[in-house]
Design a protein that fits this description.
The structure is a homodimer. By secondary structure, chain A is of the alpha/beta class. The first copy, chain A, is built from 11 helices and 10 strands. Chain A has one domain: Divalent-metal-dependent TIM barrel enzymes (TIM Barrel, Alpha-Beta Barrel), CATH 3.20.20.150. Chain A has an 8-stranded parallel β-barrel, surrounded by 6 helices. The termini of chain A are close together. The interface of A and B includes residues 105, 175 and 176 of A.
């Protein structure tokens, strides 16, 4: 793929400090970076914004708002929007939350998620931040995200203007779904592909199934087919690589960053 | 639920020998049992058939045929049908297989699965055995079963007469899918709900995600809603409880069997 479209999600190389990540990106000619709220807050929001701006990097997304089923405080969700705006990114990724005592089944959780996004969307729109609803793999439906398919995410997003609410297309979460390609077309038709992320699927899955996302090319997903699909529907924006992987985190961060860029180019 | 509909899948209490399983079933008034090929073969097919028949048990299913993407020998798939017929069950559960070097992506794997079922179906029909295509949770799409949704299973099954090919409805695999209830109605409309299995969803998932199926009531699935749905569409047959669970396997088998029956009655 075109190196100009490559964006490294901070979590992929979380062993790197933010300044180290930024300087390695500059050295390697990487132009985009997806940031996470916790390390940004740790470094300081304004300082982080200045660091990436002065390095000429584009913040392609901020991860993440959401968990609406366990946090009903609108103010805390608005804070995530404010942080995205401060970092100069137009995209806030939402991981919507799973089942909780207050929302103990999927219909209740999904209704709560739609309601919470409705409360937040106009605020985000006013600040130039698009909410990107990320469907997570069905194996996370209970404990992380009751939105499991791209169609479900679109059913929520389409209630709002596209400049307020769209979706994340992440190969790791969607690769198994034979309806996902049609849903990608549906999303693109109304301009709602707010983020496109790559990760590969490797087995066996680790305990807790959180930190086993495969390096590009190590797994079974036809990443080229996904890239072609997204290009075909007109998505020409940044492509983030977001890997949660204990093996990658145990290695030298700069080496992992270089490897990830190489793998991206080879897709 | 009605105790007369309860069937214990052998895997739930795999620590019990077949004679012990049968005698505990008789003692507890359990009328149905789902068997697995490996322990049956170990005990002897004819001896196992005689044992369950003389105890008055109904064999509600045999697990499992399939893995069509790694085994292209029709004879070995026919052997599974023969074993089902010998045990007197009308239902052979199929776990269809994941990605392999010969079928390295989902479209290829799914095409192979449909083709293999087409080869096997008439043979099964002649022997009074219904093939039951089991959609497995999408987290198994790569390594166990490329058929991930009930609609996908029905897309295959509906190419054949219902007395030859139907589907398995297993709450563990389908609970997350908002389209599953409509698919259950679709399956029932053509008489293809060949097996209904219960297991609960608990987190965190164990490494490998195979042996973490929750005891009924321990997880988040609204099992009552599923039972109601199946009753509403006219499924009045046996309901199998099939749990793969390291914790349950470490306990006394008879105790687990009694607990499982109690939990079933409480649904």
């Amino acid at each position: 793929m075109n190196p100009e479209r490559f964006s490294i999600n901070q979590m992929t190389v979380r062993q790197l400090s933010l300044p180290d990540l930024v300087s390695h990106c500059v050295r390697l000619g990487i132009r985009g970076v997806g940031l996470w709220r916790e390390p940004v807050r740790e470094y300081g929001l304004e300082a982080a914004a200045r660091l990436v701006r002065e390095a000429g990097l584009e913040v392609t997304s901020l991860c993440r708002g959401g968990f609406f089923t366990s946090d009903d405080r609108l103010a805390s969700h608005r804070a995530a929007v404010d942080e995205a705006a401060a970092l100069g990114t137009d995209t806030l990724v939402l991981v919507s939350g799973g089942l909780t005592p207050a929302y103990p089944d999927l219909p209740a959780a999904r209704a709560r998620i739609a309601e919470a996004i409705g409360e937040l969307a106009p605020y985000a729109g006013e600040r130039g931040v698009r909410l990107a609803v990320e469907p997570l793999h069905p194996m996370y439906a209970a404990d992380r995200c009751a939105v499991s398919t791209l169609d479900q995410a679109l059913d929520i997003a389409e209630r709002f203007p596209a400049e307020q609410v769209g979706v994340v297309v992440d190969t790791y979460h969607l690769w198994w779904d034979d309806r996902a390609p049609a849903a990608v077309e549906r999303a693109a038709a109304s301009g709602r592909v707010h983020s496109f992320q790559l990760a590969d699927w490797t087995t066996p899955l680790p305990a807790g199934v959180l930190n086993g996302r495969g390096q590009l090319g190590d797994g079974v997903i036809d990443l080229r087919a996904w890239a072609d699909l997204l290009e075909r529907v007109g998505h020409t924006g940044p492509v983030e690589v977001e890997l949660f992987n204990d093996g990658l985190w145990a290695r030298d961060g700069a080496e992992v960053l270089e490897e990830t860029l190489e793998r991206f180019l080879a897709v």
